[in-house]
Amino acid sequence: TGEYIQAEGELRRPEEARNPGAFDAAAYYRRRGICFQVFADRCMVVEECPRGIDGFCFRLKESLFRLRSSWKELLLQAAGEKNGGVLAAILLGDKSSLDEAEKELYMKAGIGHILAISGLHISFLGMGVYRMLRKAGVSCEGAGMIGMTVLGFYLLMLGPAVSILRAMIMLAFRIGADLAGRTYDPATALSVSGFLIALWNPYLVIEAGFLFSFGAIFAILWLVPVLQELYQGEKHRKKLWDALAGSVGIQLVLLPFTRWFYYEIPVYAVFLNLLVIPLLTVLMTAAMLGSVVYLFLPAAGEVCMVLAGGILKLYHVVCTGSLALPFARLITGKPSIWQAAGYLLCLVMIRRKFKISSGGKQQNARVRGEKRRGGFMLLLLVVCGSITIRLPGRLGIVMLDVGQGDGIYLQGPSGKSYLIDGGSSDIRQLGKYRLEPFLKQRGTGRVDYVFLSHGDGDHISGIAELLERKQIGVRIRNLMLPAGWQQEEALAELARKAAAAGTRVCTMTPGSQIRESSMKISCLGPQVTEGRGSNENSMILSLEYGAFSMLFTGDTEGKGETELIRFLEEQRRQGKDTEYTVLKTAHHGAAGSTPTAFLEQVRPTAALISVGIENSYGHPHPDTLKRLQQVGCRIYRTDEGGAIQITSNGKKSRIKTFLQK
Q1: Which residue, 229, 361, 440, 460, has most beta carbons within 10 Å?
Q2: Over the stretch 47-96, which tens digit does the pLDDT of each residue have?
Q3: Which residues pair with 654 in a beta bridge?
Q4: In this structure, are residues 452 and 491 in contact, taking their beta carbons and an 8 Å threshold?
């Protein structure tokens, strides 16, 4: 730390989101003042760490970094790889050794917040040191100064996360109030900390870390006390109610933010946190104490780690069990800004109603009635705040940017969801990082129909992932395979996987149709499957919705494309319309597909091409682009504009790209 280096390599901008619902790395780094990344081929130190105060600060940071790394290694050694990785995330904010499956389990169950450094850590460490010193007879000034110094080193070691900064500023107010003999006002402390952080970096105000950290404390101060006052009964029941009211109050305030950033609500998180939060203090104490003791008495340190491991095992069991329950995850989609604002405004009004009706133990029938009506309104608000608003009678089509592959999403006029292919040859974990975020952002927790044109990996890899991740991802109701799919081992294996996942497997033969309202999806081919390659046997689908139509051609080429041309010619001779509004260009625009004879039959007004950026295949081929231009067709490409979005009401249609300026 503090050394100046000279590096040679490729300068790149961080990757921007290319699909709705995707993580925007470019925006994330831009908010932190980072606009470029260098992938260095060669790196050398050109200037050593400076001397003086700057050099001291750099060396201090380096020492704290080494301490953090050594502490993490100790946790991995004492608690084991899996438990040590979780403990390193909880205590040190280091997720590099965290088991990915365990992390996702915590996130889906609604306790992922314990893996981030939060105000609980600061309160545990800072107030723990402060109170311990005060009990030892140290003055307020001395205990406060030592406590803040310890926290300062902890902050330098972990980095300036929003939740840490917020907790440190509020703790400074708490200690300052004690020193001045004044009453601590948490609302003022929260407001000042928010103002100072916004002054330091205004962009952080719109990030999840800021909204969740400040939203949770705001809920504790503003809503939780009102909910706790609603019940006045026996002491032990009152304690249980207060704990439940605290968890519910926080979840109510954070609900629109949870939907905005994660597109789903973990339904049982309210109850899980009643167990998880109290045990977290025990877990942190055992892990910290075990870390210190392990340095001198490894056997005794391992005993502490066994206790920590037992708590983590309990976390794993309750998270797994909660996700196995019905309705464990409510995939709601991303709300509009107006829906989120409306929800919060209604919550303010209902809170005011509760506040008026909380009149202590002596409550008359009118007050009890007010409370019942307030409770019903609150329940109704939660339901309305958790649904996705869709306009009926509109068809939505999105060609996703999946790199070098295919993946097209349809939402029918009555709300059913469809996928046509979903794979990539150059994007790893396509299902987890591109398909699922998009589907959840649309409020799609279950896809009604998935059509697979053929068995190549760049068309099915993401669908295989969705089937494997059905418990924590998006489910598939029906898997529609092309005629002759039994001849392709990849499709046969996928069919077995689908059956094991509870997905119905069907075959789409020529003439098969699926209808939804006035929308019709028809299978046009392949007519013959024997003696052909996988691409030639691609399933061909035709979509019709009022005046709008679209042709999906998979990777069809050669004999398959010749067969399709003959079919279209025969349809035209019978007086049927063979022209389409939009064409999904076959085989990513390869030179051997989409011949002139085919385009003369289809004559699309727009052609969509799914293709990877600077792909090694040279797709789309210049000759194919020229043929499309010759028929007066507008061309949209995922490598240039990201996801391609089409909306239609059956009369008019609109096409735009996700990256459209």
Answers
A1: 460
A2: 777 777 767 777 888 888 889 999 999 999 999 999 999 999 999 888 99
A3: 647
A4: yes
